[in-house]
Amino acid sequence: MAEEKRKRGRPRKNPEPVVEAAEKPVRRRGRPPKNRVQETAITPEKLVYKTENAWDNKSMSERQIEKFCKGYKAFLDKAKTEREFVREAEELAIANGFIDLDKSLSENASLNPGDKVYRIVKKKLIMLAVIGKKPCEEGTKMVGAHIDAPRVDIKQNPLYESTDMVFFKTHYYGGIKKYQWLTIPLALHGTIMKADGSVIDISIGEDPGDPVFTMTDLLPHLAKDQMEKKLSEAFKGEAMNVLVGSRPDPDKNAKDRFKLNILKILNEKYGITEEDFISSELEMVPAFKAQDLGFDRSMIGAYGHDDRVCAYPALMAILDTKKPEYTAVCVLTDKEEIGSVGNTGAQSRALENFLADLCALTTQGDYSDRLLRSCLDRSKMLSADVNAALDPNFEGTHDKLNAAYLGKGLAILKFSGSRGKSGASDAHAEFVGEIRRLFNENQIPWHTTELGAVDKGGGGTIAMMIANLGVDVLDVGVPVLSMHSPFEVVSKADVYAAYKGYYVFIK
Ligand code: MN
Ligand code: MN
C-alpha cells in the first residue's frame, strides 16, 4: 500500500534530475573534490535533535517578551475565574472590532473574509473567529484552551459556626493537593442569583483594603498523628472549611450569634439571605497577584497559569489575526479540570454549533449539514494547554529525553493519556510534522514532550474531545512548575513563544 501511494504522488515536472542521477556514479569513482564534500555532508549539528533555550532565540527580543508578559500579568489579576476571563476577553474582542454573532448580526447577514465574530455561551465559554479567504467547509485553523482553573468552591448551604468562629463548607474543584491550599490568603469570587431573580457579582479580597479568608492547618507541635499519615489521608475534603468570621451579634440571647452576625453583614452589603447561597457559584481562589519571580525576573509566579498561560496568548493571537487563508478560530472552554463536561465544556456541542453558523454565514449556496461535517473533517487545532515542566527537585518523574522544560519554548505533546497510552489523544505524525515545520520556519522555540515518565501518572486535555469531531489536534502548550498549586510558575520567554506559535498557526 505504501508503495502504491508513493506512485500516486505528484509527478516530477522536470526531467533534469534523471540526468543528474546518471552523472553521479561517474563522480563516485574518483576521489571527490574536497570542497564538494563539505557542501553536501550533513554536519553533526544537523544530524542531532537539539532544543533551544527560548531566551537564546534570536527572533524574540527581551523587550517584546517583557511587554507581552506585562499584559498577561495584568489580565491574570483581572480574570481569576472562567466568568471573569470571558468578561475581560469580550471587552478586548469588542475593542478589536469583533462583533457578537448572536446579538449584532442582522437577519440576512453574511460573513466575508476578514470579518470578526464571537459567541459567548452561559457567560463561561467564548469562541472567536476571523473569517478566512477560503470557505469554512474547506476547514478552519483553531487554537483551543480552557479558562477554568483548580480552586475551592463554596457549597450551596455553606455557613456554620463552631467554637465562636464562622466557616464556609467547601468542595474543591479539579485535581489539587489539598494541603497546598491551607494557610494562604483566599479571595472570594462569584455570582449569586437572589430570590427576586436579580444577579450580583462578588469579588472580595483583591483590593488592598479588602479582607481575605483562609483555611487553617494544625500547628506542628500537635501534628504528631497528622505527620505519620499518608498525604492522601492526612487532609480531608470535609475539613477544608474557610474561616469567615469570629465576632458575635450583640444580642447575647440570639441563636448562633456568630453566624447571625455574618448573615447580617452579607445582607447589609449584598442584600442576600442564607437561601440565596443555593443559587450561587462562589469560588475561593488565592488572593495574591501575579508577580515577577527570580532576581532576573525571568519567570511569573501566579494562580491559574493552567490554563490562562495558553488561553491568553491564544486570545491575543486571534485578536491580532487580520485576513487569514483559512477561517481562524479561538475556543476558550470551561470545566476542563473536571472532565470538560456540561454545556460550557469541550464535550458540549458549542463548537459544532458555532462552526455550523460560520459555514451557514459564509457559504454561497444553501446551508446543509454536509458543510459542517466537511468543515470539521478538514479543520486543524492546536490544543493549547500547559505541560508539566521537569522539576529537578523531584527526580524520576520524567523521562529526561521526552520531558517538558521551563524556558525551552512551546512543549509539543504528541500523545497524552497514561499507563499504555490509555485515554490518549494521539496526534498523527503528519500533523506533528506540519507543526514542527511551521515552528522551525518561523523560529518558534519548541521541544517534544511527554506528560511524565511511563506509569508515573498522566493526564489529558480538551484534545481528545475535539479529535472526536474529526479535527486534527495536537497539544502545544507552556511548561509549568508546581502545576495545580495556588502559585504556579512559568517562564516569560515561554509565554511569548506561545503567542508567537499560536499566531503563526492561525494567521
Ligand atoms: Mn490545563
Ligand atoms: Mn489542569
Quick summary:
The chain has 507 residues and is an alpha/beta fold.
Unreliable spans are 1-28
Structural class: alpha/beta
- CATH architecture classification of the largest domain: 3-Layer(aba) Sandwich
Number of strands: 21
As laid out across the biggest beta sheet, the strand order is 1-2-3-14-4-15-19-17-18
Helices and strands, with pairings:
Elements: H1 2-8, H2 16-29, H3 34-40, H4 44-47, H5 62-78, H6 82-95, E1 99-100, E2 116-121, E3 125-130, E4 140-146, E5 151-162, E6 165-173, E7 186-193, E8 199-204, E9 214-215, H7 224-228, H8 231-234, E10 242-245, H9 257-270, E11 280-286, E12 291-293, E13 299-302, H10 305-319, E14 327-333, H11 350-362, H12 369-378, E15 380-383, E16 387-388, E17 410-413, H13 429-441, E18 446-449, H14 463-467, E19 472-477, E20 479-480, E21 488-491, H15 492-506
Parallel strand pairs: 1-2, 4-14, 4-15, 15-19, 16-20, 17-18
Antiparallel strand pairs: 2-3, 3-14, 5-6, 5-11, 6-10, 7-8, 7-11, 9-10, 12-13, 13-21, 17-19
Q: What report would you give on this structure?
A:
With 507 residues, this protein is α/β, with parallel strands linked by helices. The chain folds into 2 domains: 54-149 and 303-506, Aminopeptidase (3-Layer(aba) Sandwich), CATH 3.40.630.10; 151-286, Roll (Aminopeptidase i, Domain 2). The chain is 31% helix and 21% strand. It has 15 helices and 21 strands. The protein has helices spanning 2-8, 16-29, 34-40, 44-47, 62-78, 82-95, 224-228, 231-234, 257-270, 305-319, 350-362, 369-378, 429-441, 463-467, 492-506; strands at 99-100, 116-121, 125-130, 140-146, 151-162, 165-173, 186-193, 199-204, 214-215, 242-245, 280-286, 291-293, 299-302, 327-333, 380-383, 387-388, 410-413, 446-449, 472-477, 479-480, 488-491. A 9-stranded mixed β-sheet has the order 1-2-3-14-4-15-19-17-18, sandwiched between helices. Strands 8-7-11-5-6-10-9 form a 7-stranded antiparallel β-sheet. Strands 12-13-21 form a 3-stranded antiparallel β-sheet. A hairpin with a 3-residue loop joins β2 (116-121) and β3 (125-130). α11 crosses α12 (369-378). 41% of the residues are buried. The structure holds manganese (II) ion (2 copies).
